[in-house]
Amino acid sequence: MTTAERVNPSSLPGFDDAIARFEPVMGMEVHVELGTATKMFCGCSTEFGGDPNSQVCPVCLGLPGSLPVVNGTAVESAICIGLALNCDIAEWCRFARKNYFYPDMPKNFQVSQYDEPIAFDGWLDVTVPGADATAEPDVYRIGIERAHMEEDTGKSLHVGGATGRIHGASHSLLDYNRSGIPLIEIVTKPIEVPPAVAPAVARAYVTELRELIKALAVSEARMELGQMRCDANVSLRPVGTTAFGTRTETKNVNSMRSVERAVTYEVRRQAAVLTEGGSIVQETRHWHEDTGETTAGRAKEEAEDYRYFPEPDLVPIAPSREWVEQLRTTLPEPPAARRARLQAEWGFTDLEMRDVVNAGAMPLIEATITAGADAAGAKKWWLGEISRTANERGTALEDAGITPADVARVEELVAAGSLNDKLARQVVEGVLAGEGAPDVVVEARGLAVVSDDSALGAAVDDAIAANPDVAEKIRGGNMGAVGAIIGSVMKATQGQADAKRARELIIERLGG
Amino acid sequence: MPSISREEVAHLARLARLDLEPDELDHLSGQLDQILGAVAQVAEVAADDIPPTSHALPVTNVFRDDLPRPSLTPESALAGAPAAEDGRFRVPQILGEEQ
């Protein structure tokens, strides 16, 4: 057990104090569930949310005599991920059995890859915002050790314990629908960056990797659904030394923000242990989203305890160079290059683009522009009204209830003069509230701008009659007073007047 | 000649979550040693020009199309389970461990 279990975070040194004495070295392990239709070694569906044990067969239940056959699409996806991470692709590699006794794998082993990963020795550039808003962003090259193929495990439900955790449980219930779903595990080389930016670099790496996976369309990589899961290895060494310290592995840190927080916490915790003369135990640790702390899990089993050996039921994989090069031609534009291109096309500043990317709005703005809107208009809605609503409801932007085509239509109505800004906002509100497409909301709420001269003229006449003093000033040549009459017209029409036409009508009547 | 120590067998038993009595450990250590000895004979006949292999056939790249096939029903999947609950396999308490 560690010497600093369940420490009071306020007793830990601050992050800046910790890195004044120690440098963190990080390693990230990310598991990505591929979006194939079937499992890695059998034809069972990978669809999420089925009844327990309704997507299982003798292969993924590990029944005697069953034989696995590799999913060719999963291998293609693995090669594409490797290529996109600038890796070498193995000319020949095998699967291996990772033996462990735990009911989440009914076979008592997991089929994985050991010393022969399909992809190895690559890199991914990640960008961290500069020290202030005007500074150039800093780019760090993260080395990729390997990307290998394996299969996911089943889901355990622990019954009888207080918190759903194993501790105190009387028994466990297993659903093997997830068992055998293809996983790609991507492992970095040790990440050594300036200590002050280490947590931000960890976050940026996971963010960029997720963008890459999504761009490759090999997985939706939704962390909240467990389609992408992150383990963060952290060790400390005294400033000025080069040997790595003992590391801990914090498991299942499953959001971008949590990655940054978990690394920060481990740096502070380990600094406290080392400063008090203690030593770091090599162990897995659990991340607690609510408190922002990690707690000790199991001591890390040594690799040889898994007794890896080549999987005898599967033949080797030997991707031909022709196949690899053919797959390379299918790779999409890398996300970083795509961001740079779109930023230039849209004329956004670095800061504006960062807001767009952080909000997850880039593809939505792109689609809105494709549907006819201009960049500034598209950004205004997605980062304004729609972001606010999505945040309030706790949903993703794309699930807020409005489409890029809807937003483009609202902008089109504004450009045509049928809506002013205030009315447009009401239309967007209506669409977000589920009242229908923009034209339906305009119709149902009667939101079209009043610009026909008879209706508007009557409102103008009323406003002039109600404000004789102001009218007199305008007659006397004080054009600044026109605004007051327009305000009165807008009030009388509940904001639906065409302000520009109203001004013209006022000047017509009062001379100018 | 290979030999597996009693300590190694005890370690393997722990990894496999088997609770072995001392006499069982003695008995199994001897048996495992014999099995390893039998397998080791392969090394005696393998010449230097024969590379190690994990598979009997010189075959690579056997792939399946990514097309779903019918699964078992939950009922048949659970039919052979010693215990089931709520459509899931029920297993004893997991020794206070978490993977």
From TrEMBL, chain A:
SUPFAM superfamilies the UniProt entry points to: GatB/YqeY motif (SSF89095), Glutamine synthetase/guanido kinase (SSF55931)
Catalyzed reactions per annotation: L-aspartyl-tRNA(Asn) + L-glutamine + ATP + H2O = L-asparaginyl-tRNA(Asn) + L-glutamate + ADP + phosphate + 2 H(+); L-glutamyl-tRNA(Gln) + L-glutamine + ATP + H2O = L-glutaminyl-tRNA(Gln) + L-glutamate + ADP + phosphate + H(+)
Matches recorded under SMART domains: GatB_Yqey
Keywords: ATP-binding, Ligase, Nucleotide-binding, Protein biosynthesis, Transferase
Enzyme class: ligase
Entry EC no(s): 6.3.5.-
Keyword Calcium: no
Pfam families: GatB_N, GatB_Yqey
Gene Ontology molecular function terms on file: asparaginyl-tRNA synthase (glutamine-hydrolyzing) activity; ATP binding; glutaminyl-tRNA synthase (glutamine-hydrolyzing) activity; transferase activity
Keyword field contains Nucleotide-binding: yes
Domain Asn/Gln amidotransferase, residue spans: 363-510
Protein's GO biological process: glutaminyl-tRNAGln biosynthesis via transamidation; translation
PANTHER family registered for this protein in UniProt: GLUTAMYL-TRNA GLN AMIDOTRANSFERASE SUBUNIT B MITOCHONDRIAL AND PROKARYOTIC PET112-RELATED, GLUTAMYL-TRNA(GLN) AMIDOTRANSFERASE SUBUNIT B, MITOCHONDRIAL
Functional summary from the UniProt entry: Allows the formation of correctly charged Asn-tRNA(Asn) or Gln-tRNA(Gln) through the transamidation of misacylated Asp-tRNA(Asn) or Glu-tRNA(Gln) in organisms which lack either or both of asparaginyl-tRNA or glutaminyl-tRNA synthetases. The reaction takes place in the presence of glutamine and ATP through an activated phospho-Asp-tRNA(Asn) or phospho-Glu-tRNA(Gln).
Subunit structure: Heterotrimer of A, B and C subunits.
Similarity-based family: Belongs to the GatB/GatE family. GatB subfamily.
Protein name according to UniProt: Aspartyl/glutamyl-tRNA(Asn/Gln) amidotransferase subunit B
Source organism: Haloactinopolyspora alba
Automatic annotation (TrEMBL), chain B:
Complex formation: Heterotrimer of A, B and C subunits.
Organism of origin: Haloactinopolyspora alba
Protein name: Aspartyl/glutamyl-tRNA(Asn/Gln) amidotransferase subunit C
Region (Disordered): 68-99
Gene name, Swiss-Prot/TrEMBL: gatC
Family, similarity comment: Belongs to the GatC family.
Annotated Gene3D superfamilies: Glu-tRNAGln amidotransferase C subunit, N-terminal domain
Function statement: Allows the formation of correctly charged Asn-tRNA(Asn) or Gln-tRNA(Gln) through the transamidation of misacylated Asp-tRNA(Asn) or Glu-tRNA(Gln) in organisms which lack either or both of asparaginyl-tRNA or glutaminyl-tRNA synthetases. The reaction takes place in the presence of glutamine and ATP through an activated phospho-Asp-tRNA(Asn) or phospho-Glu-tRNA(Gln).
Classification via InterPro entries: Asp/Glu-ADT_sf_sub_c, GatC
UniProt entry keywords in alphabetical sequence: ATP-binding, Ligase, Nucleotide-binding, Protein biosynthesis, Transferase
Enzyme class: ligase
